[in-house]
Write the structure tokens for this entry.
Amino acid sequence: MKIGIVCYPTYGGSGVIATELGLGLARRGHEVHFITYRRPVRLAHFQANVFYHEVDNEDYPLFEYPPYDTALASKIVDVVQYQNLDLLHVHYAIPHAAVAYMAKKILLAHGRYLPVITTLHGTDITLVGNNRAFAPVVEFSINKSDGVTSVSESLKQETLRQFDIQRDIKVLHNFIDFQRFKKVNKEHFKKIIAPDGERILAHTSNFRKVKRVEDVILIFNKVQAKIPSKLLMIGDGPERQHAEQLCRELDLCNDVRFLGKQDAIEELLAICDLFLMPSESESFGLAALEAMACEVPVVSSNGGGLPEVNIHGETGFVSDPGNVEEMAHYAIQLLSDDEVLARFRANALAQAKRFDIENILPHYENYYEEVLERSVVKIE
Ligand code: GMT
């Protein structure tokens, strides 16, 4: 198949999943064309069957906001026509699903039907999508997609609750590439971070409010009071400064390291004992899955689809968002017993294997086939 993929190229989970999906499909012989405004972060090396088309968004003094949607629609039309794509898969509904609809209409005027699949990733529904500024367009463009997928059952139910959706939504979970995410020996790193054998906790995110980064610090503060430990804060975003300030106030600066954005996350996860994800809501929690693939158990909130990934009492523990006391209690319970920790590590890996990219990719291929088969040309 010749597949177009539209996504955000940044460190966010939707861009990561879109890129890994495209690379995986290319390995299986499909021709994959990424269409976005910058090279996606995980598209770092040359790979056969992979093409990248950059959207040129011309600036002009009249525009206070350069019209990215228009530029993207034009680029999609161009790539579909000249690369002869079979279908377009857009990741994150805003603005991609609406832009795809526009491209589809333009192509229809040229006598070509472009099947469009939209994958809902989370905040495009839960935070931004339901905002009145976007909601009518989000609902309309989801309904106009030829196929719709959601990264968890929880997100599917939330979408159906918030919008009037007349399409079937197929749940295709986030996945993980075990070629990359696996426990490797990085003892030399460990000695630098935890020279006296302290436990190592980690948090990865884009430090947005929904991640409750402050709770990560508050949980760590309680853990640290009982168990010698260190915390790695990986990523960057609007709440980072706030979190750093809290560390100063709690006198934790010697034990918390803010590492900023990192590419080789797996090398850091390799030295960790516990991953913290206290998010207000998380459609799936790809970062937690990455940790589990590296044999790191997770203490998280139960917001959104997290309980579909992190199994309470098995791969880690879940608590209500904001229940710092309970999350700290679970973390201490896990970290104070080597045998318990080893058992949870093994369970985390076993659960992560359920989301192996090699198992999930065929589901995407089947879904593409299904959508292509039922795409009938109709002029609306
Ligand atoms: O988590 C983020 O803030 C990034 C966001 C995105 O859209 O890039 O991630 C969402 O999509 C990921 C991949 O499907 C999911 O694993 C994340 O749980 C989801 N984030 C939220 O729902 C907050």
Observations:
- The first strand starts at residue 2 and ends at 6.
